[in-house]
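A.,

Following up on our hallway conversation. Structure tokens first:
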């Protein structure tokens, strides 16, 4: 098929696809067969070619990896969170890939979380799970469930050793350390305990990988005796299960992209029938949180950016308003504590937190000093508390954990993630970096926010290299985040920019609505407008601009390089959704039917079919001069299949053979890539080395 120094050439096997009178010949559809030896041979040939083409970067890759390792406090300990009589936390140990889950008993008079020196184990520590022990003998390891029972006796945990996100659920007796005979294969994310810890609820998926069943398991009984509590027949909907913070109710969350229904079971009566809080109505989304005598309802019924209401927990019925809808202020979540509510919201492109003390109509927002930042609630397992844990970061401020006193309104910094000296021996100083907010103007006149970070003194004359990142789907917001690996780019003079394009949720629900379905192309044209603006405003120049995105952001990468191949010096597409039309046309594939409310249904609607065909990257490869493209994927990914980037690269080579295209497939990983932290750092070093190499050409 190839030698390591020549580009692989995929064989062509014409396969016809006909929909709505349109016949398309797909010559690389054979790559969808994972069991075909030719498929594996092709992926291995691509890996060999990529390795050969990037051998000259081995030194830089090692340098970047070591910089990340040098700057990271490898032996570390999270700020313990209190639940009942214990502090729970995670430790990492230098030289070990995975975290160690621990707890320690709360001591008399102890109110503040115990903090160790340099991440050392706490005195009196109890190890609940050691990921390094569990991962022994496996190339991949992922922890799904980690759920301690209300009485602190049992631990429900689940493991995945292939990356396909199908977990085996087990129960550990924390009093004896024994793992019980209870073993349930093929589970998904999400568990919930009954009040007396005799029953564990969990979720499984159907053949299309849709979470569709909630089960009830009695501890100490065979999995074959488990009972289905809810089975969702509508293929647009998926299910989840959780225990409320109050530990009074088990919630079964049933939702599609645009419609919700929640059913509740009293945690004290786990064999009871689930009761519907409010029947599903097409287009109405709501979530439920328990608070005393009421259920809190966060909903969009006549409220585009959501409102907060409540109803009786004993007999759910009419919703009484608590926070009215305010256009432009998107309410995203509500967390209930015994005497306070905390609402997570978004306004003017920034996240925020609003506190509502019980028994009063007063509310207030917590203030933060930086102009660009990200804030949200962290782990807060206790219901009866006057202190909540917050997580805060910005493009220049490392991840920070605060405790906020809901009574005194005092904000106490518990820990800021350490950043150790870089290769030059200098201590990290946020003042060495600066962040900016700029705005591009899209073709239709819409202003698109861009967040940027650079080292102080980086020139603004167009000479600086720049990485522009984007996502723009599912109302997911790319809020500012701190990255140790990014420092290696910034210190080499690179500007990092995040384009907050439509399809995301940065500016509220309308921002999302204007970048989905038959308005999806706004996502792509917004990103191109941001790229053009960065050049026009002298942040960078076209030949020094590399775009990066993953998953749906990988679709973005494929679409924009077709729209504007001249706008970029390089494209990094990670687990990219680049064969979107073929995937969304196949309802047997994982997640397809549930995705129709995001992209449209091209099977039933010829307009959607034509629209998707006009932007899907694989369908629109043209004989033009493309910039260099690096596609990274994983063989066991169940969200975006490996064959999407494999087919895309094969077609690029055939249609535009003068381009520089690389495909790297992780042969034992899933959607998130390598599972161990060192392996993840190596992957990031590989991508960043390739990116820096673009700037030298």
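Then the amino acids I'd put at each of the 697 positions:
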């Amino acid at each position: 098929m190839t030698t390591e120094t020549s580009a692989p050439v995929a064989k062509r096997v014409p396969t016809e696809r006909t929909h709505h009178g349109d016949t398309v010949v797909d010559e690389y559809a054979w790559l969808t067969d994972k069991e075909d030896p030719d498929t594996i041979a092709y992926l291995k040939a691509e890996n060999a070619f990529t390795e050969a083409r990037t051998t000259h970067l081995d030194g830089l890759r090692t340098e970047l990896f070591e910089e990340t390792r040098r700057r990271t406090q490898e032996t570390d300990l999270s700020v313990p969170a209190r639940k009942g009589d214990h502090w729970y936390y995670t430790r990492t140990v230098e030289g070990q890939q995975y975290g160690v889950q621990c707890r320690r008993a709360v001591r008399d008079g102890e109110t503040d979380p115990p903090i160790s020196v340099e991440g050392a184990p706490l005195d009196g520590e109890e190890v609940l799970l050691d990921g390094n022990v569990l991962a022994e003998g496996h190339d991949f390891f992922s922890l799904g469930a980690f759920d301690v029972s209300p009485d602190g006796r049992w631990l429900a945990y689940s493991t995945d050793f292939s990356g396909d996100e199908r977990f085996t659920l087990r129960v550990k007796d924390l009093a004896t350390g024994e793992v019980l005979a209870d073993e349930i294969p093929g589970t998904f994310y999400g568990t919930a305990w009954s009040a007396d810890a005799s029953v564990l609820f969990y979720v499984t998926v159907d053949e299309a990988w849709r979470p569709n069943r909630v089960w009830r398991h009695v501890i100490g009984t065979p999995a074959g005796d488990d009972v289905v509590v809810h089975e969702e027949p509508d293929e647009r909907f998926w299910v989840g299960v959780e225990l409320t913070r109050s530990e009074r109710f088990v919630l079964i969350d049933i939702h599609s992209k645009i419609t919700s229904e929640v059913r509740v079971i009293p945690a004290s009566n786990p064999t009871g029938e689930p009761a519907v809080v409010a029947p599903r109505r097409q287009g109405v989304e709501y979530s439920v949180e328990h608070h005393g005598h009421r259920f809190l309802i966060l909903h969009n019924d006549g409220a585009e950016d959501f409102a907060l209401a409540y109803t009786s927990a004993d007999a759910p019925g009419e919703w009484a308003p608590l926070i009215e809808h305010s256009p432009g202020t998107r309410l995203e979540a509500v967390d209930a504590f015994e005497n306070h509510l905390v609402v997570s919201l978004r306004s003017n492109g920034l996240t925020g937190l609003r506190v509502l003390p019980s028994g009063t109509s007063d509310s207030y927002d917590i203030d933060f000093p930086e102009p660009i930042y990200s804030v949200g609630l962290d782990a807060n397992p206790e219901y009866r508390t006057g202190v909540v844990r917050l997580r805060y970061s910005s493009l220049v401020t490392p991840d920070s954990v605060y405790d906020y006193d809901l009574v005194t309104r005092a904000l106490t910094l518990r820990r800021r993630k350490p950043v150790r000296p870089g290769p030059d021996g200098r201590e990290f100083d946020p003042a060495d970096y600066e962040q900016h907010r700029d705005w591009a103007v899209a073709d239709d006149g819409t202003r698109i926010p861009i967040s940027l970070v650079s080292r102080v003194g980086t020139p603004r004359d167009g000479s600086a290299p720049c990485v522009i990142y984007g996502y723009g789907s599912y109302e997911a917001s790319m809020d500012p985040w701190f990255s140790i690996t990014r420092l290696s780019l910034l210190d080499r003079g690179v500007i990092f920019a995040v384009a907050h394009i439509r399809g995301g949720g940065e500016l509220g629900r309308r921002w999302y609505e204007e970048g989905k379905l038959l308005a999806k192309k706004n996502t792509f044209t917004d990103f191109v407008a941001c790229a053009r603006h960065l050049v026009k405003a002298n942040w960078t120049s076209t030949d020094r601009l590399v775009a990066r995105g993953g998953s749906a952001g990988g679709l973005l990468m494929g679409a924009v390089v077709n729209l504007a191949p001249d706008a970029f010096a390089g494209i990094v597409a990670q687990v990219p959704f680049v064969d979107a039309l073929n995937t969304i046309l196949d309802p047997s594939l994982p997640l397809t039917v549930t995705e129709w409310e995001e992209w449209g249904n091209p099977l039933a609607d010829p307009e959607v079919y034509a629209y998707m065909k006009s932007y899907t990257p694989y369908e629109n490869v043209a004989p033009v001069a493309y910039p260099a493209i690096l596609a990274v994927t994983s063989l066991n990914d169940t969200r975006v299949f490996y064959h999407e980037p494999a087919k895309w690269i094969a077609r690029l080579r055939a249609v535009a053979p003068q381009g520089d295209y690389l495909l790297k497939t992780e042969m034992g990983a899933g959607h998130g890539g390598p599972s161990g932290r060192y392996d993840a750092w190596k992957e990031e070093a590989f991508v960043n080395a390739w990116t820096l190499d673009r700037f030298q050409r």
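The CA atoms of residues 351 and 374 lie 6 Å apart. Curious whether your intuition agrees with the design.

B.
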